[in-house]
Amino acid sequence: MLKDSQNKVFNQIIDANINRLKEGLRVCEEIARFILKNRALTKEFKKIRHKIDILSKKLISPAVLVKSRCILSDVGRDIHILELERKSYQDILYANLQRAKESLRVLEEFSKLTNKNIALKFKKLRYTLYEMEKRIIKKIGTLCNHR
């Protein structure tokens, strides 16, 4: 069990990574939908986003997460390393796939502290995203040149 001070930090980490994950997935979904015009990929991204909603609500209530936010005192808020370095939709897609995978890993690791079953589900979603990335890179050959 986490102490109160650890619990607040835990909630902030979970909240930040759920938000980052869903934002990254939404960007990928829009690229699949409007640029690639790929119904299957669009549907897969949307399905993962909805699974994240379900898992995150089982982990911590959305009200508790919102209450734990400390946006003004977040030391990472104004760090923009490489975030403005986008030259194409491939760059945007790749950056957001990485953002989503990284956030899934953080959620997986921190969920182990309170709910190992949910941690395993986050891990499964991470591997699903690895497979999707592989298929997307195959569809967009130029994406490989941007690594």
Outline:
By secondary structure, this protein is mainly alpha-helical. Helices cover 73% and strands 0% of the residues.
Topology at a glance:
Layout: H1 4-35, H2 39-59, H3 62-68, H4 89-111, H5 116-139
Helix pairs in contact: 1-2, 1-3, 1-4, 2-5, 4-5
3D architecture notes:
This protein is mainly alpha-helical and 147 residues long. The protein has one domain (4-71, 89-146). It has 5 helices and no strands. It has helices at residues 4-35, 39-59, 62-68, 89-111, 116-139. Helix 1 packs across helix 3 (62-68). The longest helix has 32 residues, at 4-35. The model has no long low-confidence stretch (mean pLDDT 89).
Low-confidence stretches: none
Which range does the strand content fall in? Answer: under 5%
Oligomer: single chain
Secondary structure: helix percent: over 70%
Count of structural domains? 1
Mean pLDDT over the full residue set: 89
Helix count, DSSP H or I runs of 4 or more residues = 5
- The Rg value, from CA coordinates, equals 16 Å
Q: Characterize the biggest β-sheet.
A: none
Helix-and-strand structural type:
mainly alpha
Shape: globular
Q: How many runs of DSSP E, i.e. beta strands? A: 0
Order of helices and strands: HHHHH
Span of the ends, CA to CA: 40 Å
What attributes does this structure have?
globular; 0% strand; 5 helices; mainly alpha; 147 residues
